[in-house]
Structures are given as structure tokens and as C-alpha cells.
């Protein structure tokens, strides 16, 4: 019998953000990724996703800031 694990809060918020992003709701997605980062501040994908939202909103400095927070071993 295999044990299943529930998704973490950051994974749930990321999934919600992804759904909003696909529908071009960059503001909503940005908020979800921000909440997810509060739960998992070392997750490079969350920063990349939030940077993409900021870029879509024309918030280029915010996009740049998030992109530079990503560890150099991770591609955005």
C-alpha cells in the first residue's frame, strides 16, 4: 500500500497562480505566487513565475528583482 501526500500550501498556491496566469490574470497570479513564496521562500520556480507576472504587468523592475533572486543554478 502506498502512502499519498497532500500538496503543500505553496504547491496549491502555485497551481492557483498557474491557472490565473494561463488566463492572463497577471495581478491575481502575482498575488498567488507571492503567498506561495511566503510558504517556500527558497523555491526558484515561484520567483520565476512571479517575475513573469510582473513583466506581463509592465512592472519591469519587480520582474528584474525576482529574476535576480533566483539562484544561479536555476534557469528562469
TrEMBL record:
One of its GO terms (biological process) is post-translational protein targeting to endoplasmic reticulum membrane. GO terms for molecular function: molecular adaptor activity. It holds the Pfam family TPR_17. Transmembrane segments: none annotated. GO terms for cellular component: membrane; TRC complex. Keywords: Repeat, TPR repeat. This is Transcriptional repressor. It comes from Ganoderma boninense.
Amino acid at each position: 500500500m502506498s502512502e499519498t501526500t497532500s500538496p503543500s500550501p505553496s504547491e496549491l498556491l502555485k497551481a492557483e497562480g498557474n491557472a490565473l496566469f494561463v488566463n492572463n490574470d497577471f495581478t491575481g497570479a502575482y498575488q498567488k505566487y507571492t503567498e506561495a513564496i511566503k510558504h517556500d521562500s527558497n523555491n526558484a520556480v515561484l520567483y520565476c513565475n512571479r517575475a513573469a507576472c510582473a513583466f506581463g504587468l509592465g512592472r519591469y523592475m519587480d520582474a528584474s528583482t525576482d529574476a535576480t533572486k533566483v539562484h544561479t543554478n536555476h534557469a528562469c
